[in-house]
Amino acid sequence: MKKPKVLFLCVHNSARSQIAEAFLNALAPDKFIAESAGFEPRELNPLAIKTMAEAGIDISAKKPKAVFDLVKKGDFFAYVITVCDEASAERCPIFPGVTHRLHWSFEDPSAFTGTEEEKLAKTRIIRDQIKAKIEEFIKEHSK
């Protein structure tokens, strides 16, 4: 039986969607295939790389992808989950032909201000919130 594919989308594909993809692939590799993409891909956020390394997951080699490239390839996803915050929701990409669409609002680590340690602490909170949502998703959508 084929595993359902899950696409995580956000504006930049530089932190939140990458974190969600990594957690789903790490926590349920036998149940789902996760990917991520963004509307305006940017470089991977160093804070995301660092906080995921603290969680035992290396995302340093991941490359941000454009959602339009996935649309052009004709990829199909059983679930498309947007992870933009409410302030950016109108810019969060939409993916056509979706069976199940969900929205999880998380703050954008690239918008955090303060010292490096303060930004890192805020990113850890986002990472942990995303992990909790992923664990909830696995429980609700595993067959």
Q: Which features does this protein show?
A:
143 residues; Rossmann fold; 4 helices; 38% helix; 14% strand
Please outline what is shown here:
It is built from four helices and four strands.
Q: Judging from the principal axes of the Cα atoms, what is the shape? A: globular
Main sheet overview: 4 strands, parallel
Radius of gyration: 14 Å
What is the string of SSEs from the N terminus onward? EHEHHEEH
Q: Please identify the top-level CATH class.
A: Alpha Beta
Q: Can you name the CATH architecture?
A: 3-Layer(aba) Sandwich
Mean pLDDT: 89
End-to-end distance: 11 Å
Instruction: List low-pLDDT spans.
Output: none
SS content category: alpha/beta
Number of domains: 1
Description:
The protein is an alpha/beta fold and 143 residues long. It has one domain (5-141): Response regulator (Rossmann fold), CATH 3.40.50.2300. Helix content is 38%, strand content 14%. It is built from four helices and four strands, in the order E-H-E-H-H-E-E-H. It has helices at 16-27, 46-54, 67-73, 116-141; strands at residues 5-10, 33-38, 79-82, 100-103. Strands 2-1-3-4 form a four-stranded parallel beta sheet, with helices on both faces. The chain starts with a strand and ends with a helix.
Q: Which helices and strands occur, and which strands form pairs?
A:
Elements: E1 5-10, H1 16-27, E2 33-38, H2 46-54, H3 67-73, E3 79-82, E4 100-103, H4 116-141
Helix pairs in contact: 1-4, 2-4
